[in-house]
């Protein structure tokens, strides 16, 4: 087992855009791929694990690298919206989910190509961050490493405050009251000054409980 940051990117309403504006969608996807690969060059040991249709799974050594990449990518998409949008009535927007924690790394061989793939709760949680937590045009991010979590929370709050980004702090657990008391002891600032919501872990379907994650709006 090793610790990695796993990041998922998905295009909002991609099926509709493919069905309605397939030619423009092909052009937009090529531009997106160029933007992603250009941005990844700034982060050591980062790489695309795989693409699934028009979705991406990307690996980073550090959670900070994954967050900075996601933030910069979303802001770049906003700046380039005129060239990426498939029509005047349909913007080109992404959801991005990130989870940092332990993963299983396996070397696989497909059609004589040697590839790396990642497995485990961190991978599944990153997928849920994208599909269930990330707002359109924003980021859902969680740190599953208890050792690094305090530093992660402190950094994220300062980063979001300094940039005036709107955000929510969410928990997914079976015992919200107990978790809220424990979080208050650890960081009263985390709960008293910002919108906080505790939800059932059942909403994330199949992953372990989450003490705190960030839903970040970058509009």
Structure commentary:
The chain is of the alpha+beta class. The chain has a single domain, classed as 2-Layer Sandwich (Alpha-Beta Plaits). Helices cover 41% and strands 32% of the residues. It contains eight helices and nine strands. Strands 1, 2, 3, 4, 5, 6, 7, 8 and 9 form a nine-stranded mixed β-sheet that branches. The longest helix is centred in the first third of the chain and has 19 residues, at 22-40. It is globular.
Radius of gyration: 18 Å
Low-confidence spans? none
End-to-end C-alpha gap: 37 Å
Kindly identify the CATH topology. Alpha-Beta Plaits
The portion of residues forming beta strands comes to: 25-35%
Round the mean pLDDT to the nearest integer and report it: 88
CATH superfamily: Nucleotide cyclase, GGDEF domain
Structural class: alpha+beta
> Helical element count?
8
- In percent, how helical is the residue content? 40-55%
How many domain regions? 1
CATH architecture: 2-Layer Sandwich
Largest sheet entry:
9 strands, mixed
